[in-house]
Amino acid sequence: MRKVIILIFILTTTSVCVAQSIKGGLAVGFNISQVDGDEVYGYHKYGINVGPMAIVPIGKSFSVSIETLYNQKGSFQSPRFNDSLNGAYKLILNYVEVPVLFCYTDKEIIKFGTGFSWGRLVQFKEWEHENRVSWTNPYGPYKNNDVDVLLDIQLKLFTGLNFNFRYAYSVGKIRTREFHNVFGNTWTRKQFNNLLSFRLVYIFKDTPTIKPKKDKDLK
Fold first, then answer.
1. Of 32, 79, 106, 185, whose CB neighbour count within 10 A is largest?
2. Closest CA to 65 of 106, 12, 17, 124
3. Which helix H or strand E contains 146, and what residues bound it?
């Protein structure tokens, strides 16, 4: 699996050298995330989102992009009570991820994209009530792979630099967990990654935006 990840990374970062029509880029930003189904609510877990990309134009307005990202997800809740069961929770899920998007660019200013990403879990840590939870395997009860559906918007700030907002949600569950409360009630919930990303995307050798010509005043 590591060899596959390395191969994808090399293909993504060097593809710009293979064909002049393919553009290379770099995305740097942060995530705010939660895990739906963990009984912790709100986008309170912060993480980084960084990696290279390749963009393949299809005609004038359409393109396909592929990225290789280091993407930090998870969940977080601050302590709520002043006792041993204080409600604090922290979950770290770090992935190496390969998103593929089909994009439409409107007037060379704003780009809309949708697609899927495949992520491989490379780091996992979990705390409950501020105590580290021990597991017998390195990824605990979480699945090694995560497939997300993506919605993406990019706004060109100036030539080469874009602001990017992305929403991602797991297609399949990443864990099934059984919960208990002090009254003896038990329930089971499936868990899914839920992610908002805010990034700056730099495109190498980007084409300057063509400004419309103004009509000259008639003499």
1. 32
2. 12
3. strand 145-158
Cα-based distances in Å from 147 to 47, 118, 119, 150, 199: 18, 5, 6, 10, 20
- CB under 8 Å to 81, separation ≥6 — which residues? 87
| Pairing label, strands 110-128, 131-132 | antiparallel
- Between CA 126 and CA 132 the distance in angstroms is 6
What residue ranges define each of the domains in the chain, with the CATH number in brackets?
2-203 (2.40.160.20)
Contact by Cβ (8 Å): 99, 66 = yes
**pTM of structure:** 0.83
Q: With a cut of 60, say whether residue 122 has pLDDT above it.
A: yes
- pLDDT over 60 (residue 8): no
Separation in Å, CA 153 to CA 47, 50, 149, 201, 206: 20, 17, 14, 11, 17
**Measured at the alpha carbon of residue 106, what is the angle toward residues 205 and 153, in degrees to the nearest 5?**
80
Contact by Cβ (8 Å): 74, 45:
yes
User: How many residues are given for the chain?
Assistant: 219
What is the CB neighbour count within 10 angstroms for residue 63?
19
Q: Output the furthest CA–CA distance in the chain (Å, rounded).
A: 88
How many Cα atoms within 13 Å fall on the side-chain side of residue 153? 6
Dist. CA 29–CA 43, nearest whole Å: 16
% residues pLDDT > 70 (the chain): 84
